[in-house]
């Protein structure tokens, strides 16, 4: 009997070893697949444009240069637009997450008699859209055109974010809220003292979603505030840089469409490919820097928040 148990234990150990080995190989392949495009883009952004045109560039630049970044940041509006993007991202994330959390808490309460109606109404907006022209006319009537708040108010409440936060709050023990009500706590007290602190993982997850969305947005700048330089964002300015580079490159000037002489007298050139790579790195760095601080909440919040529909 003991011999049989030992053989079973050995068999399980071998099976575990095989499973772990296969799992490690698959994970390493996924890491390579995800990291290679990022490292390749970084290498292109740090490589001279004329050498990049030759192709064959992999993980390291062959001819190192900072000129691609210099060309991007030489644009007069870049720094101001970067500050606007930071302000937009911070303001939009704080207000958007707070508003979504309040709505989610409201429709998560069993005693809220309009719970089903409000939930269905919100979900319907995910499938039906009024269109660009009615939306523009509405924003104009509200006085949002030409103002910073056109970036914030129209996207203040995200239906997907509300559903995720609501699902998380519904998973909290109802006895906590019942005890608070017996002690005389109102809805605001229950929200700020119980729901919000316990929902911190899903709040961090939604904050990352909202921050990435606000940081990457440029189309609303093009539609509403393209004629106001003070309200331009980093992504919109970089989009214009890329469009200008593409236009110059396609006009027949080729790789010498944009150039400048360096201090050493060597002619530096840029191409749409090199500008695109440098822009990708520039707009990705802030989010990459923020993500490690939210990582410990991200998986837990996304998993628990998605348990219920």
From TrEMBL:
Segments traversing the membrane: 21-39, 86-105, 117-136, 148-169, 190-212, 275-294
UniProt GO BP: transmembrane transport
Main localization (coarse): membrane
Record has Transmembrane as a keyword: yes
Entries under InterPro entries matching the protein: MetI-like, MetI-like_sf
Membrane-related topology note: Multi-pass membrane protein
Subcellular location: Cell membrane
Record Pfam families: BPD_transp_1 (PF00528)
UniProt name for this protein: Aldotetraouronic acid ABC transporter membrane protein 1 /aldotetraouronic acid ABC transporter membrane protein 2
Species name: Amphibacillus marinus
Taxonomic lineage from the root: Bacteria, Bacillati, Bacillota, Bacilli, Bacillales
């Amino acid at each position: 009997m003991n011999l049989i148990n030992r053989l079973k234990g050995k068999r399980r150990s071998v099976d575990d070893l095989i499973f772990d080995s296969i799992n490690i190989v698959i994970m390493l392949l996924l890491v390579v697949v995800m990291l290679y495009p990022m490292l390749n883009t970084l290498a292109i952004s740090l490589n001279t444009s004329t050498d990049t045109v030759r192709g064959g560039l992999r993980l390291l630049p062959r001819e190192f240069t900072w000129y691609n970044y210099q060309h991007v940041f030489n644009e007069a509006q870049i720094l101001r637009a970067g500050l606007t993007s930071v302000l937009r991202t911070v303001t939009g994330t704080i207000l958007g997450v707070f508003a979504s959390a309040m709505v989610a808490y409201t429709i998560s309460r069993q005693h809220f008699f309009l719970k089903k109606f409000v939930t269905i109404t919100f979900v319907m907006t995910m499938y039906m859209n009024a269109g660009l022209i009615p939306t523009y006319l509405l924003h104009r009537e509200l006085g949002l055109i030409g103002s910073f708040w056109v970036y914030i108010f129209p996207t203040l409440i995200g239906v997907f974010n509300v559903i995720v936060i609501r699902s998380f709050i519904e998973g909290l023990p109802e006895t906590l809220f019942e005890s608070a009500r017996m002690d005389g706590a109102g809805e605001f007290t229950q929200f700020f003292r119980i729901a919000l602190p316990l929902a911190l993982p899903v709040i961090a997850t939604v904050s990352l979603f909202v921050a990435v969305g606000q940081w990457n947005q440029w189309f609303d700048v093009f539609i509403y505030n393209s004629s106001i330089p003070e309200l331009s964002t980093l992504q919109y300015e970089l989009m214009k840089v890329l469009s200008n580079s593409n236009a110059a490159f396609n006009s027949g000037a080729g790789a010498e469409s944009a150039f400048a002489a360096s201090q050493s007298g060597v002619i530096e050139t840029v191409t749409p490919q090199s500008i695109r790579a440098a822009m990708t790195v520039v707009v990705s760095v802030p989010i990459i820097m923020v993500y490690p601080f939210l990582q410990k909440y991200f998986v837990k919040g996304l998993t628990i928040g998605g348990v219920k529909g």
